[in-house]
Design brief:
Layout: H1 2-20, E1 38-39, E2 42-43, H2 51-75, H3 84-107
Antiparallel strand pairs: 1-2
Protein backbone atom coordinates (compact mmCIF):
# COMPACT_ATOMS: atom_id res chain seq x y z
CA UNK A 1 0.00 0.00 0.00
CA UNK A 2 2.83 2.39 0.85
CA UNK A 3 4.31 1.72 -2.58
CA UNK A 4 1.12 2.98 -4.29
CA UNK A 5 1.19 6.13 -2.18
CA UNK A 6 4.80 6.80 -3.23
CA UNK A 7 3.86 6.25 -6.89
CA UNK A 8 0.96 8.68 -6.52
CA UNK A 9 3.28 11.30 -5.04
CA UNK A 10 5.88 10.67 -7.73
CA UNK A 11 3.32 11.59 -10.39
CA UNK A 12 1.16 14.05 -8.45
CA UNK A 13 3.76 16.40 -6.97
CA UNK A 14 5.38 17.38 -10.31
CA UNK A 15 1.91 17.91 -11.81
CA UNK A 16 0.83 20.14 -8.91
CA UNK A 17 4.01 22.19 -9.13
CA UNK A 18 3.60 22.44 -12.91
CA UNK A 19 0.08 23.83 -12.52
CA UNK A 20 1.24 26.40 -9.97
CA UNK A 21 4.39 27.55 -11.80
CA UNK A 22 2.85 29.82 -14.49
CA UNK A 23 1.29 32.06 -11.84
CA UNK A 24 4.77 33.40 -11.05
CA UNK A 25 5.11 34.96 -14.53
CA UNK A 26 3.34 38.13 -13.45
CA UNK A 27 5.61 40.89 -14.80
CA UNK A 28 6.95 39.05 -17.81
CA UNK A 29 5.67 39.79 -21.32
CA UNK A 30 3.46 36.86 -22.26
CA UNK A 31 2.43 35.38 -25.59
CA UNK A 32 -0.98 33.64 -25.70
CA UNK A 33 -0.64 30.00 -26.66
CA UNK A 34 -3.72 30.30 -28.90
CA UNK A 35 -2.12 33.31 -30.68
CA UNK A 36 -5.30 35.31 -29.82
CA UNK A 37 -7.29 33.26 -32.35
CA UNK A 38 -11.05 33.13 -32.05
CA UNK A 39 -13.50 30.31 -32.66
CA UNK A 40 -17.19 31.14 -33.00
CA UNK A 41 -16.47 34.69 -31.86
CA UNK A 42 -14.64 33.70 -28.66
CA UNK A 43 -10.99 33.27 -27.82
CA UNK A 44 -9.95 29.64 -28.08
CA UNK A 45 -8.16 29.54 -24.72
CA UNK A 46 -7.89 33.09 -23.40
CA UNK A 47 -5.06 35.23 -22.07
CA UNK A 48 -4.37 32.94 -19.12
CA UNK A 49 -2.68 30.27 -21.24
CA UNK A 50 0.70 31.41 -22.51
CA UNK A 51 3.67 29.90 -24.29
CA UNK A 52 5.95 31.03 -21.46
CA UNK A 53 3.68 29.45 -18.86
CA UNK A 54 3.56 26.16 -20.76
CA UNK A 55 7.36 26.02 -21.02
CA UNK A 56 7.91 27.06 -17.40
CA UNK A 57 5.41 24.50 -16.13
CA UNK A 58 7.08 21.69 -18.08
CA UNK A 59 10.52 22.67 -16.79
CA UNK A 60 9.27 22.97 -13.20
CA UNK A 61 7.67 19.51 -13.38
CA UNK A 62 10.93 18.09 -14.72
CA UNK A 63 13.05 19.72 -12.01
CA UNK A 64 10.58 18.71 -9.30
CA UNK A 65 10.73 15.14 -10.57
CA UNK A 66 14.53 15.14 -10.51
CA UNK A 67 14.43 16.37 -6.92
CA UNK A 68 11.97 13.59 -6.10
CA UNK A 69 14.29 11.02 -7.65
CA UNK A 70 17.07 12.21 -5.36
CA UNK A 71 14.89 12.15 -2.25
CA UNK A 72 13.15 8.84 -2.96
CA UNK A 73 16.38 7.28 -4.22
CA UNK A 74 17.96 7.96 -0.84
CA UNK A 75 15.44 5.60 0.72
CA UNK A 76 14.92 2.88 -1.86
CA UNK A 77 15.27 2.59 -5.61
CA UNK A 78 12.47 0.02 -5.82
CA UNK A 79 9.93 2.85 -5.63
CA UNK A 80 11.28 4.67 -8.68
CA UNK A 81 8.95 3.93 -11.58
CA UNK A 82 9.34 7.02 -13.76
CA UNK A 83 12.45 7.80 -15.81
CA UNK A 84 13.66 11.42 -15.61
CA UNK A 85 12.22 12.39 -19.01
CA UNK A 86 8.84 11.14 -17.79
CA UNK A 87 8.57 14.13 -15.48
CA UNK A 88 8.77 16.43 -18.48
CA UNK A 89 5.83 14.54 -19.98
CA UNK A 90 3.93 14.90 -16.69
CA UNK A 91 4.35 18.68 -16.93
CA UNK A 92 3.28 18.74 -20.58
CA UNK A 93 0.29 16.54 -19.75
CA UNK A 94 -0.73 18.76 -16.85
CA UNK A 95 -0.64 21.82 -19.11
CA UNK A 96 -2.57 20.10 -21.90
CA UNK A 97 -5.22 19.11 -19.36
CA UNK A 98 -5.33 22.70 -18.13
CA UNK A 99 -5.79 23.96 -21.69
CA UNK A 100 -8.62 21.48 -22.34
CA UNK A 101 -10.34 22.78 -19.20
CA UNK A 102 -9.85 26.37 -20.37
CA UNK A 103 -11.25 25.52 -23.81
CA UNK A 104 -14.37 24.02 -22.23
CA UNK A 105 -14.79 27.01 -19.92
CA UNK A 106 -14.61 29.40 -22.89
CA UNK A 107 -17.33 27.43 -24.68
CA UNK A 108 -19.49 27.68 -21.55
CA UNK A 109 -18.84 31.47 -21.55
CA UNK A 110 -17.11 31.34 -18.17
CA UNK A 111 -14.64 34.07 -17.32
CA UNK A 112 -10.94 33.60 -16.61
CA UNK A 113 -10.44 32.43 -13.03
CA UNK A 114 -14.10 31.50 -12.56
CA UNK A 115 -14.64 28.19 -10.77
CA UNK A 116 -15.89 25.47 -13.10
CA UNK A 117 -16.82 23.12 -10.26
Amino acid sequence: MFEYFVHFLQIGIPAYFANAAPTFLIKMRKHPIDFSMKWKGQRVLGDGKTIEGFILASIVAYLTGLLELQVIGNFSYEFLIIPPVGFLFIGVGAMIGDMVGSFIKRRMKMKRGEDAG
